[in-house]
Specification:
With about 120 residues, the chain is mostly beta strands. The protein has no helices and 11 strands.
Length: about 120
């Protein structure tokens, strides 16, 4: 069983930056993928960024060039550096870890990111 705890969310003005962290209780160094999803009010949850065990990264088109995902296997932590934040980035951000191609998959409890002037 893996428990994920996100932190780093908050209120920021447009153009600002935040760094989200997701700390895992177990060893996730060999996890198949680690990612960040978000869900805005009234919208479906969407994949924001994902990083594979091999270090391949993929991003939602609207965040490319602004967000960077990274993982620190020694600390069992995945990060999401968010820059040039926009109003549309406001959402609850969830950390996700998939241990193997067929699972299991774990979710964090979510952290609120609000971009507002």
């Amino acid at each position: 069983q893996v428990q994920l705890v996100e932190s780093g969310g908050g209120l920021v003005q447009p153009g600002g930056s935040l760094r989200l962290s997701c700390a895992a209780s177990g060893n996730i160094a060999t996890s198949y993928t680690m990612g960040w999803y978000r869900q805005a009010p009234g919208k479906q949850r969407e994949l924001v960024a994902i990083i594979t065990k091999g270090g391949i990264m993929n991003y939602l088109d609207s965040v490319k060039g602004r967000f960077t995902i990274s993982r620190d296997n020694a600390k069992n932590t995945v990060y999401l550096q968010m820059s040039s934040l926009e109003l549309e980035d406001t959402a609850v951000y969830y950390c996700n870890v998939r241990l193997t191609l067929v699972g299991p998959t774990y979710w964090g409890q979510g952290t609120q990111v609000t971009v507002s002037s």
